[in-house]
Design brief:
Length: 263
Amino acid sequence: MTEVVILSDNKVINLRPQGLKAEWGFSALIKAKDVILFDTGQTGVALDNLLVLKEEKPSKVVLSHGHYDHTGGLINFLRSFDLKIYTHPDAFLPRWYKGDYIGIPFQRNQIESYAEVIEHSDPIEVCKDVIALGEIPRKYESALLSDSFVLKGEKKVDEIKDDQSLVIKTKEGLALVLGCCHSGLRNTVEYAEDVVGDEVRFILGGTHLIAFKGNKLLEILDWIERFEWIAPCHCTGLMNELILKERLGDRCKIIGAGSRLKL
């Protein structure tokens, strides 16, 4: 059985253990054949929470994309553990949003002084039954940021091509762990099913539903009802989490830093 422990999220919902912290960011510990860190949150909160929870040490890190709220805690982990990093090549591109720098807050050579970096655009097996999807084809809506850009040659545009998610194989189907899902939830689910050849049954993490409103949001919410359960957090938006809870009841799990989900 695989367990996912949320280390960083916008909220803490558990009273115990004492000392858990929240922040605008996301990080999860995937306890599978290997212990994998998926994203590192914005600051040192994810590492602090890992220590409060007395969790196992990760041996690998997968970065969902190169935004600061998913990578800002990276150096804290690299200074504490011997890690290998998996990421899309574009994750290291400098990027801005409405004039503010929102990229990885460390130089690549600084990161590589601590750990091996494995770049991949295609799906890659991080350990047995855990696959990092790499660059996700987009047929349906994606969740991008307005007024944002990366510096890539002469171009100033950011399609967040580095956005990827993790797929975990379970006996009951696939579980999809999302960082921010800028590639779009429907695109990510469809690609995961194509890559692995099984059906996605469980969703957890940041769905970026805050990017949508009106009929488009309602259309996506209706589509989400196909899953056995969903545990949305981070960039889903609190109101959207409450809407999903009202619609799905026990099939929507309200989670935060410190939450544990067994697969």
